[in-house]
């Protein structure tokens, strides 16, 4: 008892000391941060209906990712494509390590007779930019001079940015927090990042922390998935996880554009439900924006809607975890055949805000990769953010 009273007094003394310090702090109430100012009109939001959801894997290695030279046994492109088609993929990014061919991806992976887009599987031109400071996947709808991008890898970030701009490529940071090969470049170079690498969701916590930091800085960096498979496996293989894009056009360029504009979500595997995230910004009951989109907020209420699509387990409960500006906003439960959850909030005027989601629930079997679902556990999907007051010229 005596000890408890002593503890209470000690606590009161600490609280008192804290108050005294804050009473002495001088805060200029009329200080204006010149960086926070109204934006000019933002570009209109693209159609929410004209387009198509396509799924794929954006981090797959073929037989060309082999230090000892091309290894036909390892993972031929023809096998990758056949598998991708068998699980309903619309696109794939075969991203071989460029250092294994000293940057000459154009005459290796892309020159393979199997490396050809057709209407049922769109191929992205790219490579895993494999450098001392980390790895990043490049994506392009058309061939580009990858050798040039490989050659600049050990130069200053400003020089890398110049070459990237000249080549017109999309760059996506891979496994940004490591633990091996973390991304040690400026995120000014980056359009997207791999926030879900491999079927082992739990190892992505620190990458998600970096993502939050970058979103908080005003960068609209798209979060995407990537299995990072190097050879056939029954644990981690093509589609663990699966990235979904809402592409305005059924072309490789449509996929790259969607990746850039963030109309993207990630699901545990090709058969797991897809999360879609919308907002009604003018209270007319009609959704005006989806994940990846950016609108002005004037402090008025916005209604958000979350939908789970596809292979939903109607007898199970899914938990939607909403993150606002890097902090927990709330958890919502959803059930039924076509689960929908709505919530409201008033994103602040002038200053930036963003909202994003993770979805947890029952795992979905992936018979072609039978041990993956157990490793992934109850992580079902994640969305990209809905943005308010982000400067499109960042
Ligand atoms: Zn890598
Ligand atoms: Zn890789």
From TrEMBL:
Q: CDD domains from the xrefs?
A: PHP_HisPPase
What's a single GO MF annotation on this record?
A: 5'-3' DNA exonuclease activity
Signal sequence residues:
1-23
Give the UniProt keywords, A-Z: Signal
* Entry-linked InterPro entries: PHP_domain, Pol/histidinol_Pase-like
Q: Which domain of life is it from?
A: Bacteria
**What name does UniProt use for this protein?**
PHP domain-containing protein
